[in-house]
Specification:
- With 192 residues, the protein is mainly α.
- It has one domain.
- It contains seven helices and no strands.
- It is globular, with a radius of gyration of 16 Å.
């Protein structure tokens, strides 16, 4: 029989393999798509209706959603309950991104934009909320790092909204938060 400690460790590892798979999918998909620009094109273009890379990118979205959903609960011990709730919201909204691929219809594209923007905002909030928790429990350096992560992700979101090198800023914001999430999972796994 598996004990709760082992289950929590397994769940927390989702914050490592989920984002790593997601990043791997958009890197590989982008490298194998002629004319695709990681600076100007959104990651979701790789999962668009009819895209040759849609299966690969959809697998990345699924891995991210499953991994981060599982990890949110145990990571509350590291980043606090509000930040963990924001991470869980980000993961659930990622399934909305998956369910609304670009180029299916104008209304689906609009829903996609709502899901993607909301997921991104939840990810930025997770960093900022983690900073607050880490400060309250006496980890000022970790708090400053989490504040930086949340801020970089938030600023990147605004750049994407205003279509300023949106592919590049999307990758900067997501990768920054994904690496921080991986770091929180590693911290959890080392403590437990």
């Amino acid at each position: 029989m598996v004990d709760s400690r082992s289950l929590n460790r397994l769940a927390a590892s989702g914050a490592i393999w989920g984002p790593a798979t997601f990043i791997g999918a958009w890197v590989a998909g982008g490298l194998h798509t002629d004319g695709y620009s990681p600076i100007g094109d959104a990651i979701s273009r790789l999962a668009a209706e009819g895209a040759d890379t849609s299966t690969l990118m959809n697998a990345g979205f699924i891995a991210y959603g499953v991994g981060v959903t599982a990890a949110a609960w145990p990571l509350r011990f590291i980043i606090g309950k509000p930040a963990a709730t924001a991470l869980a919201a980000n993961a659930v909204l990622t399934f909305g991104v998956l369910a609304t691929p670009l180029d299916r219809s104008e209304s689906i594209d609009q829903l996609h934009t709502v899901f993607a923007g909301s997921a991104y905002a939840a990810l930025a909030a997770a960093g900022l909320l983690a900073a607050r928790h880490l400060s309250a429990v006496g980890y000022p350096k970790a708090s400053k790092l989490a504040m930086t992560v949340g801020s970089v992700t938030g600023v990147s979101l605004f750049a994407v909204v205003f279509d300023v090198a949106s592919g590049l800023f999307q990758r900067i914001g997501l990768t920054t938060s994904d690496l921080a999430m991986m770091g929180a999972a590693i911290a959890y796994l080392r403590k437990k």
